[in-house]
Amino acid sequence: MAYAQPFPLAAPPKPEQTFYGPDLAVRLICPDCRDPNPNIIEEFGSGDLVCGTCGLVLGDRVVDTRSEWRTFANDEGDDPSRVGGPSDPLLEGIGQLDTIISFRDGGSGMARELQRAASRAQNTRSERNLLSAFRDISSWCDQFSLPKTISDIAKQLYKRSDEEKLLRGKPLEAVIAACIFIACRQAHVPRTFREICNLTHVSKKVLGQCYKALEQAFNLSPGAQNHNSTNGTQVISTGPEDLLIRYCNHLDLPPYFHGICKDIVVEARNRGIADGRSPISIAGGAIFFTCFLLGKPKSLREICTVAGVSEGTVKLVYKLYCADKDKLVKQKWIDEGKANLDRLPPIEVAVAK
After folding, report:
1. CATH number of the domain at 240-352, please?
2. What class has domain 125-235?
3. What confidence tier does 68 reach under pLDDT thresholds 50, 70, 90?
4. Residue 204: HSE in the Cβ half-sphere, 13 Å Cα cutoff
């Protein structure tokens, strides 16, 4: 007996999903102008929607969606800074959020007294000294054409020496000069003692005392290439080859001159020629020697003025180099026609030229 197959039950209908969204067919037009393409202007200053054709106010309390900070940039475009320039981590809030009172009150003098009182209350004497030292460091580094990296390192060294009272009783200029000198060595920008003394007008004796004190306190070991493992500071003493490129630029010598002069200085040091002489004396004598060797003579006075050494020291280094000229001059320089040993005159003739 066959049975009829029952029909399957129909699935229950799914509830319709309601879509919520803005009605894009609704447009805001001016009831007076009834322009299909209205010119609606948002006045953020007053928070109103205004018809640009007739001036009718169409709405109020408009939310300003633009940036909430003012634009302080000198060029066109928005300035992404909301709080001004970055704070200096070395100052730790000193002199960065102060209130300055103007003293132009028409001559009564009350505002000037308030300004002095506020200045005394805001910063202590140590803070004022720190700000003054930082300004001097920045000013001297700018005069010496030193990069900002050296200025920052010098400020860190001075702040540490001031906090630990390492150079109590020493002149402020001498402490700043020693910090700049150490910063130049750490940043591999060689400057000599004499150059720092001429910049800061500090005597070489006082500068040396401050440098020795900071060297012992910061565990900075001088030498050709010494690395400080205590605080991760690398200090490299100034060698004659480090000074050559700057001296050659001041003397307006060709680019290849520096490479040959540097090789002569390194070879002379390896052979022990002119050992014990100061780096600036060796650099000046090497330039004087190389000028005659390559046929680019410069007067002795020019070289001594650039290097900051006396003529006697340059003459002595020149004599020592001429005595071993066969060991210092490479054969390939002669084969290429750059160098000629016959161009090296005796010291009396060289000085006369």
Report:
1. 1.10.472.10
2. mainly alpha
3. low
4. 5
